[in-house]
Amino acid sequence: MATANQPSSLSIREQGIQQLSTWMTEQLDIGQSKASIPDGYLLKERLTSSMIPFLLIADSLQTGVLTTKELEKLLYSYFGGEVLLLPLSPNEWFILTNRELIEDSSDLKQSHGRDSDIEVEDTEEDVLMDFSLGLYELIASEWVGIFHIGVSKPIVPSERLLAEVSLLKETVTLGRLFHVKDHIHLPWELSLERLLYRIPDEDRAEFVARADQYSDMLADEETVATLETFFKMDCNVSETAKQLYIHRNTLLYRLDKIKQETELDVRRFEDAVLMKLTLLLYKVTKS
């Protein structure tokens, strides 16, 4: 460690990253998510413009070691511009990149109709999802292992840096818990899960206990996959059948079987809501 008579070998930028990462970790460790970046911090003035936040977590690595230096090099190449990589732990990094990433990538997609072409503009959420998926695939191809990425909409880091890190940490936690097969986790898709997660354990267990007669059904992977896909497709039978690569009649048979076992017809809105809640609470209670 450098002393007063021994100047640091780190650049100003590297010192700023180290300073900010240490402060963020300390604040998060004590549960503080509202504190502002202290005045005088080296990078504070660089965090006053709109930026896109990502959180990368490496659960496990099967090959090699994922170092911050190697990751930063890969991110520079992927995003094609300035990236701020803030280590939070040996396997966790907070990433900030310029908002122009979205603006430069919001190209129009064309969907060719029978009579005319229809232009559909990508939403901000679509672009963020695409970039996150591309980043995940790139990292997974470089380092074999299990990774999770959380991404949020653009923020001004100087105003809500800790709040955004806390949000993305919670988002990844919820994604791992409720959607175990997913590796990209988006805050705006987990609102219901966030609400249910904050219900006290005792109340959650009581709700699930009432539905304990469904336990065999909820433990069946095919049934759970059918329900999750059905809800993801907004309870659309035809689209769900396509996603599951099954005949429409096969899907209707499965839904009828679920109705017989639970007395809930998930094609009805109220029953679908109750089944969705039961499924989510069952996951978090049995985890």
Please explain how this structure is put together:
With 287 residues, the chain is α+β, with helices and mostly antiparallel strands. The protein folds into 2 domains: 12-191, Alpha-Beta Plaits, CATH 3.30.70; 199-286, Arc Repressor Mutant, subunit A (Orthogonal Bundle). Helices cover 52% and strands 15% of the residues. The protein is built from 12 helices and 7 strands. The strands form 2 sheets. The protein has a 5-stranded mixed sheet, with helices on both faces. Helix 9 packs across helix 10 and helix 10 crosses helix 11. The longest helix is centred in the middle third of the chain and has 22 residues, at 157-178. The protein is elongated, with a radius of gyration of 23 Å. Mean pLDDT is 86; it is low at 1-6 and 108-116.
Strand content: 15-25%
Low-confidence residue ranges: 1-6, 108-116
Helix content: 40-55%
The CATH class of the largest domain is Alpha Beta
Query: How would you classify the quaternary structure?
Result: single chain
Number of DSSP strands? 7
- The average pLDDT is 86
Helix count, DSSP H or I runs of 4 or more residues = 12
Number of discrete domains: 2
Task: Give a brief description.
This protein has 287 residues and is α+β, with helices and mostly antiparallel strands.
Notable traits:
287 residues, alpha+beta, Alpha-Beta Plaits, Arc Repressor Mutant, subunit A, 2 domains, five-stranded mixed beta sheet, two-stranded antiparallel sheet, 12 helices, elongated
